[in-house]
Amino acid sequence: MGVTKNDLFTKSQNEIALAAKAFAHPARIAILEFLLKSNSCINGDLVNELGLAQATISQHLRELKDIGIIQGTIEGTKVNYCINPSRWAEIKEKFNNIFNEYNSPSSNDCC
Amino acid sequence: MGVTKNDLFTKSQNEIALAAKAFAHPARIAILEFLLKSNSCINGDLVNELGLAQATISQHLRELKDIGIIQGTIEGTKVNYCINPSRWAEIKEKFNNIFNEYNSPSSNDCC
DNA sequence: TAAATATATCGCAATATTACGATATATTTT
DNA sequence: AAAATATATCGTAATATTGCGATATATTTA
After folding, report:
1. Is B69 within the bounds of a domain?
2. Range of the structural domain that residue B43 is part of
3. Segment B46-65, tens digit of pLDDT
4. CA of A39 to C1' of C9 (A)
5. DSSP H/E element including B78
6. Which residues of chain B have a pLDDT value below 50?
7. Which of A36, A41, B13, B111 would bridge with A80, disulfide CB 3.0–4.6 Å?
8. What is the ipTM of this complex?
9. What is the pLDDT of residue A108?
10. 3-state SS of chain A?
């Protein structure tokens, strides 16, 4: 028990759930929002900005990188992080597909 | 340790993270997708459809209801669940705002 | 009213996530 | 080469999530 039964669900369902995890923690939202306005940043920028420990920020960055929504390039002793354009577009489309599949009824009393 | 430091983040960041949790598990994606195509359903429908135990489905439904993305109305011994139109629109907009805030560069090498 | 039907909640076990200090690694500067 | 700088990883503790059997609750049917 306690382990998600991924085999019960479709590949698509598992993929969307994985992508959603990028947004499922406020620290990761903060990181993504920071990247949206600054285009790119390093771990240290985020430590100053968010007030979480360096190890914690590094861990969140790794999760975002594992999901693929950000990428990092080494520049000397620093690592420059930015959004991964193609993966961003892919995730955006997945969510749009779900959101647009719903046709809101005229009344709020749908059930 | 181990507890999310919500006080470090903005109300908006915490709200988006909360909404994202609706999508962060394949069973909840499956439930939402089932509701999108069938308009409304009861707990029992989902137990047959997904292959998870009744208690587990009930738990996921409660989470979705707590987030507000679905609503349930009692009908005899059954509870009819459906998507909450206004909340759906609200969450859709939150995500669209983030997704549209990003202007993809011409090249994939942004950093 | 007893049985059937449907859902919610409780309690527990297992796994996952969050957070961070300590430490390892790797590059640049002095 | 030593010191400084920046990040990643390890190990650990605490909390959260997932899943389900058992049970409670509530309505409908026989």
Report:
1. yes
2. 10-98
3. 999 999 999 999 999 999 99
4. 47
5. strand B78-83
6. none
7. B111
8. 0.94
9. 64
10. CCCCCHHHCCHHHHHHHHHHHCCCCHHHHHHHHHHHHHCEECHHHHHHHHCCCHHHHHHHHHHHHHHCCEEEEEECCEEEEEECHHHHHHHHHHHHHHHHCCCCCCCCCCC
- Considering its fold, how many domains does chain A have in total? 1
A87, part of any domain = yes
Q: Mark which residues 41-100 of A lie under 8 Å from B by CB.
A: 50-52, 71-73, 80-86, 88-89, 92, 95-96, 98-99
A5 touches chain B (CB under 8 A): yes
pLDDT tens digits, A25-50: 999 999 999 999 999 999 999 999 99
Which value, in Å, is the radius of gyration of the alpha carbons in chain A? 17
The pLDDT of residue B110: 73
CB A47, CB A54: distance < 8 Å: yes
Task: Supply the CATH number for residue A63's domain.
Answer: 1.10.10.10
Instruction: Name the minimum distance, in Å, from the CA of A66 to any CA of chain B.
Output: 15
pLDDT under 50: residue ranges of chain A: none
Does residue B15 lie in a domain region? yes
A36–B contact, CB cutoff 8 A: yes
pTM for the predicted model, two decimal places: 0.95
Tell me whether residue A104 is in a domain: no
